[in-house]
Amino acid sequence: MARFLILLSTAVHLVSATLVGELSKELIKEGLVSIDENGIPKTSCMVLLSNGTSTPQECPVIPGFGPQGVGCFALWNADRLIEQGCFSRQEISLRNQCKKKTCHSRRKQKDVSFCCCHGPLCNGKFTQ
Ligand SMILES: *[C@@H]1O[C@H](CO)[C@@H](O)[C@H](O)[C@H]1NC(C)=O
């Protein structure tokens, strides 16, 4: 038990050292984001490869100015999937753009649709 508590406090310390923001803390609590061995939040997303197939990949938070988070995105038009992958941005930007669990576009820009979401492989399905 004591050993477990020591491990736990070490993990908490590492997380605070990387400036995990409010959104990431919330997503970790909800199981939509996990933490790697260095205390960096990460998720998994479907990523479109150059040969046109999609595959699951690990997506870490990429450091930047202010609290950063990570989600998944998809970009498509009527004909095809254009891009799909990791979406690491400032938390404030993720709050505005990403839904939890489902990748559902908020608005259509001309004929291209974009969605962003939180949750493992949540961008495997995307809807207008
Ligand atoms: C696409 O590329 C990936 C990675 O190189 C490979 O594993 C996969 O088999 C390829 N799929 C097709 C349909 O070529």
Automatic annotation (TrEMBL):
Q: Which residues cross the membrane?
A: none
* Span of the signal peptide: 1-17
Q: Where in the cell is it found?
A: Membrane
Using the UniProt record, give the first listed, main subcellular location.
membrane
Q: Which domain of life is it from?
A: Eukaryota
For the keyword Secreted, the answer is no
Q: Which residues form the Activin types I and II receptor domain?
A: 71-124
Q: Which GO terms describe its cellular component?
A: membrane
Would you tell me the protein name for this molecule?
A: Activin types I and II receptor domain-containing protein
Q: What organism does this protein naturally occur in? A: Pristionchus mayeri
